[in-house]
Amino acid sequence: MTYLFGPVPSRRLGRSLGVDLIPRKTCPYDCIYCEVGPTTRKTLRRRDYHTEAIIRELTEYLRGPKAALDYLTLAGSGEPTLNLGLARIIQATKGLTETPVAVLTNGALLHLPEVRRDLAAADVILPSLDAATEKTWRRINRPLPEQSLAQLLEGLVALRREYQGQIWLEIMILKGLNDTEKELSALKRTIKPLALDKVQLNTAVRPGVKASARPLDPEEMQAVADFFGEGAEVIASSPRPANAETAVSDARFIEMLARRPMTAADVAEVLGLPLDLVQKRLKHLCKTGAISYSRYQDQGFYRQ
Hints:
Elements: E1 4-10, E2 14-20, E3 26-27, E4 41-42, H1 51-63, E5 71-75, H2 86-96, E6 101-104, H3 113-119, E7 124-126, H4 134-141, H5 149-162, E8 166-172, H6 181-191, E9 198-202, H7 218-228, E10 232-234, H8 250-259, H9 264-271, H10 275-288, E11 292-296, E12 299-303
Parallel strand pairs: 2-5, 3-4, 5-6, 6-7, 7-8, 8-9, 9-10
Antiparallel strand pairs: 1-2, 11-12
C-alpha cells in the first residue's frame, strides 16, 4: 500500500487504519519531539497531493475483506490539512464505510475558513497545542517565522464555534519545557473556554528530533492530568484484538517501520504475531541493513 498503513493500535483511537495524505515531512512545523523525523519541506502552502490515487487505494481496501476498525485516521508523515483534496477524501471515505473518520492535525491552518470547511464532515478532529506562551510554543514546535501562537489559538476558537463533531486536543508534555506551573497554568487558562470534548496528555515515548524532547514518568503525567482536572486524561496504550495475519513479508515490516519507530512489542501487536518470532525477523532485517535499531528511554526501537 502506498497511502494506507495499518491497521495499527492507536493510544487515542483504538484499532486505526491510517491514511497518509502528505509526502513525508511536509509540514509548517519542525517539532522537536516528532517521531517521523525532521521536517524537510516546511510550508504553509496547500496543494493537491495525489487525491484521486488516495481515494482509489481507499476504495480498493474498503471493498475487500478487512479487519474491524475503530477509526479511519487521516494523518501520516506530514500535516494533512495541507492537502487541498482533504474534503474530497473525507467525502469519498464516508461513502465507502461507516467507520468514523478522524483527522490528526497540528492546527496550524485552522485559522483559514476553507480548512475548517474541509474538515466539517469528519467525525473527530484531533488538533494539538503544546504551549500557551509564544516563546515555549516556538521552542517546541519550531513554526515558520510568519506563524504566531495567536493565529493558532484563533483557529482553535473558530473550529469550536463552527464544528459540530468531537474535538480531542492533544498536549505533548516535555520535561523542563512546558511542565512548569507557569506553562501548565497558561495552557489551562487558554483551553478552558474551548469546551473541548477531551484533553489528552502525551509525552515523548518514542525517539524524536531533539534530545531536549524528554518524557515525564507516569506519576508526573498523572499529576499534570490532576492539575488540568476533569476531562483531562493521560494517553496510555491499551491492548487490542490481534490481527489474524500469520504470514508477513519483509516488505510489510519495512513499510511499517518507515512510518514511525516501533518496539518489537509494538510490531507484534500490530501484526498479531508471537513476540519471539517478530524479534527474530527484526534482528534479521537489522543484519541485512534494511532497518536500524537504537535505544531511547531504556526501550529498543526499530526504524527504516
